[in-house]
UniProtKB/TrEMBL annotation:
<keyword id="KW-0961">Cell wall biogenesis/degradation</keyword>
<dbReference type="GO" id="GO:0005975">
    <property type="term" value="P:carbohydrate metabolic process"/>
</dbReference>
<dbReference type="InterPro" id="IPR011050">
    <property type="entry name" value="Pectin_lyase_fold/virulence"/>
</dbReference>
<dbReference type="GO" id="GO:0071555">
    <property type="term" value="P:cell wall organization"/>
</dbReference>
<keyword id="KW-0378">Hydrolase</keyword>
<keyword id="KW-0134">Cell wall</keyword>
<dbReference type="InterPro" id="IPR000743">
    <property type="entry name" value="Glyco_hydro_28"/>
</dbReference>
<keyword id="KW-0964">Secreted</keyword>
<dbReference type="InterPro" id="IPR012334">
    <property type="entry name" value="Pectin_lyas_fold"/>
</dbReference>
<comment type="similarity">
    <text>Belongs to the glycosyl hydrolase 28 family.</text>
</comment>
<protein>
    <recommendedName>
        <fullName>endo-polygalacturonase</fullName>
        <ecNumber>3.2.1.15</ecNumber>
    </recommendedName>
</protein>
<keyword id="KW-0732">Signal</keyword>
<dbReference type="Pfam" id="PF00295">
    <property type="entry name" value="Glyco_hydro_28"/>
</dbReference>
<keyword id="KW-0326">Glycosidase</keyword>
<feature type="signal peptide">
    <location>
        <begin position="1"/>
        <end position="20"/>
    </location>
</feature>
<feature type="active site">
    <location>
        <position position="280"/>
    </location>
</feature>
<keyword id="KW-0677">Repeat</keyword>
Length: 462
C-alpha cells in the first residue's frame, strides 16, 4: 500500500479525533510497520511441478512397492520406505512415490537430505504409524516421519499421514494426572530445510503435534488438512519454530490444541485463508517458558474462519523470559462461538503448579487487529493481560465487532497501551493511549507526512 495514502488517512483521522501531535508519529510508524511486514510471497523458486504422471519422461519413479512395501496396513513397511528414500534421494529428478489405495505401516524414520535435484515426494496412499507407544523407538521419541536437510523439495498428493495417536493420548498427563508428562512424536516434521512446498496432504491423529516446520526457510504450505479430535492433547496442527519466510494458505485444521502455533526465532510468517476448529486457535507462543528467550516478528494472518475454538487469535507468553513479539497483524477474521476471540496473555501457565509473577517477560508490541467479527462465548471478547513490568505497547484495533449471543461483552486490559479506530466493539477504551516511555518515534519519517485530502481516503484500502 502507498505509504502516503496511509499517512494522509491517519493524519485526517487523528486530526479529527483531536489526538495530540506526537501520537500521529507513533501511529504512523505502527501502521506503517503493520502494512509493510516485508513478507514476500513469490520469492521462492518453486518450480511448478505438475502431477508427476504428466511429465513422466523426465522423472524417475521410485515406488515404495518396488522396494518390498506391502501396503496392507499390518506388514512392517519401514525398511522398504528407507531403501526407497535412499534411492530417490540420490537420484536426480526422482519421485518418491507412495501409491494410492493402500496403507503403509511405517516406524519412526529420519529421511535425511541433502538429496539430488528436484525431488518430489508424492504421497497418494496412506502412511500409518504403529499404534503402541511401548514399542516406539526410544531414540526417536519425539518424531515419526522426519525430513531434514532438504532443499527444493515438493511434498504433494492426496495421501494421508495418520499417527494412530489414540493410545498416546490416553497415556498423556493431560488425560490422566497420574501419567508422567512426557513428549510424544510429531507426525510430520520438516527440519533444517529450505525452498519446500507441501501441497494437498492430510495429516491426522498425530501422537502429539501434527506437522512441525523447524529451522527452515522459504516454506509454502498449500491446501493441507489437519484432523485430530478436539480432545486429543497437545496435538497442534501446524507448529512453526526457528523458521522464516513461511506461507500457510488454504489450510483446514481441526485439532485438540492450537490450529497453528508460531514460536521462537520465527519471522515473516504469513497465513492466508485458514479454517480452524475445533482447536485452541491461531497462536503466537508460548514463549518465555523457564526464563527462555523468545523472538517472533512479522506475522500476518489474513482471512480466517474460526469455529468453536477456545481462543481466536492469541499471543501467549510465560512470566519470566526475554525477547519480544513485534509486528503482527490479524485481519479479516470471522469467529463463531469462540471462547477468547482476541487475547494477549502474558501470564500463560500451562503447568500443574501455579506460575509466580516475575519482573521479566517477553515484550509485546505493534500488534494490529483489523476487520475481526463474530461471536464470543465468554464475556471478555478482548483480553489484553500484560505484565505490570513489561507492558504491551502499540496495540491497534480497527473494525472489530464481537458479540455475545445472550449478553454483553467487554474488554479486559492490564498494562496494555494502544488505540482503536473505526468500529471497535466492545470498546477498547481501557487501552491507555499514553505512551509510557515506550519506543517508536522515528524522526526521519516525519518529513514524509503529507497534507490530508479526501482523495487519499477514498483510495485507501485500510
Ligand atoms: C518397527 O517397530 C517394531 C516395534 O513396534 C519392531 O518390531 C520392528 O522391528 C521395527 N521395524 C524396523 C524395520 O525397525
Ligand atoms: C489413570 O491412571 C491410573 C494409573 O495408570 C489408573 O489406575 C486410573 O484408572 C486412570 N484413571 C482414569 C480416569 O483413566
Ligand atoms: C530462541 O532463538 C534464539 C535465536 O535463534 C536462540 O538463541 C535461543 O536459544 C532460542 N530460545 C529457545 C528457548 O529455544
Ligand atoms: C472482513 O473479513 C471478512 C471475513 O474474512 C471478509 O469476508 C470481508 O470481506 C472482510 N471485509 C473487508 C472490508 O475486507
Ligand atoms: C500477576 O499479576 C497480574 C497483573 O497484575 C495479577 O492479576 C495476578 O493476580 C498476578 N498473579 C500472581 C500469581 O501473583
Amino acid at each position: 500500500m502507498d505509504k502516503l495514502f496511509l499517512v494522509s488517512f491517519l493524519g485526517l483521522l487523528i486530526a479529527a479525533c483531536g489526538v495530540a501531535g506526537n501520537m500521529l508519529d507513533d501511529n504512523f510508524n505502527i501502521l506503517g510497520e503493520a502494512e509493510d511486514l516485508g513478507i514476500a510471497e513469490d520469492d521462492v523458486e518453486l518450480f511448478e511441478i505438475p502431477s508427476w504422471t504428466s511429465e513422466r519422461g523426465g522423472k524417475v519413479l521410485v515406488n515404495v512397492d518396488s522396494f518390498g512395501a506391502v501396503g496392507d496396513g499390518v506388514s512392517d513397511d519401514t525398511q522398504a520406505f528407507r531403501k526407497a528414500w535412499e534411492t530417490a534421494c540420490s537420484t536426480p529428478k526422482s519421485v518418491f512415490l507412495v501409491p494410492p489405495g493402500r496403507s503403509y505401516l511405517v516406524n519412526a524414520t529420519k529421511f535425511k537430505g541433502p538429496c539430488a535435484d528436484k525431488l518430489v515426494v508424492q504421497i497418494d496412499g496412506t502412511i500409518v504409524a504403529p499404534d503402541e507407544p511401548k514399542n516406539w523407538d526410544p531414540d526417536l521419541a519425539r518424531l515419526w516421519l522426519d525430513f531434514s536437510k532438504l532443499h527444493g523439495v515438493a511434498f504433494q498428493g492426496n495421501g494421508v499421514i495418520d499417527g494412530s495417536g489414540s493410545k498416546w493420548w490416553a497415556s498423556s498427563c493431560k488425560k490422566n494426572k497420574s501419567n508422567p508428562c512426557r513428549g510424544a512424536p510429531t507426525a510430520l516434521t520438516i527440519d533444517s530445510s529450505s525452498s519446500i512446498k507441501v501441497k494437498g496432504l492430510t495429516i491426522q491423529n498425530s501422537q502429539q503435534m501434527n506437522f512441525v516446520i523447524s529451522k527452515s526457510e522459504s516454506v509454502r504450505v498449500y491446501e493441507v488438512r489437519v484432523s485430530s479430535p478436539g480432545d486429543s492433547p497437545n496435538t497442534d496442527g501446524i507448529h512453526i519454530t526457528g523458521s522464516t519466510n513461511v506461507v500457510l494458505q488454504d489450510c483446514k485444521i481441526g485439532t485438540g490444541d492450537d490450529c497453528i502455533s508460531i514460536v521462537n526465532a520465527s519471522s515473516a510468517i504469513k497465513m492466508k485463508r485458514i479454517y480452524c476448529g475445533p482447536g485452541h486457535g491461531v497462536s503466537i507462543g508460548s514463549l518465555g517458558k523457564d526464563n527462555s528467550m523468545g523472538i517472533v516478528t512479522k506475522v500476518v494472518l489474513d482471512t480466517a474462519f474460526l469455529r468453536e475454538t477456545s481462543n481466536g487469535v492469541r499471543i501467549k507468553t510465560w512470566q519470566g523470559g526475554s525477547g519480544y513479539v513485534r509486528g503482527v497483524r490479524f485481519e479479516n477474521v470471522r469467529m463463531e462461538d469462540v471462547a477468547n476471540p482476541i487475547i494477549i496473555d502474558q501470564f500463560y501457565c500451562d503447568s500443574p503448579t501455579t506460575c509466580q509473577n516475575q519482573t521479566s517477560a517477553v515484550q509485546i508490541s505493534q500488534i494490529m487487529y483489523r476487520n475481526i467479527s463474530g461471536t464470543t462465548k465468554s464475556e471478555e471478547a478482548m483480553k489484553f493481560a500484560c505484565s505490570d513490568t513489561v507492558p504491551c505497547s502499540n496495540i491497534v484495533l480497527n473494525n472489530v465487532n464481537l458479540e455475545k449471543k445472550d449478553g454483553t461483552v467487554e474488554t479486559y486490559c492490564n498494562s496494555a497501551q494502544g488505540f482503536g479506530y473505526g468500529v471497535v466493539h466492545p470498546s477498547a477504551d481501557c487501552l491507555s493511549s499514553h505512551d509510557k516511555g515506550s519506543i517508536l518515534i522515528d524522526q526521519n519519517e516525519n518529513a514524509e507526512l503529507a497534507e490530508p485530502t479526501r482523495d487519499h481516503i477514498v483510495h485507501t484500502e485500510l
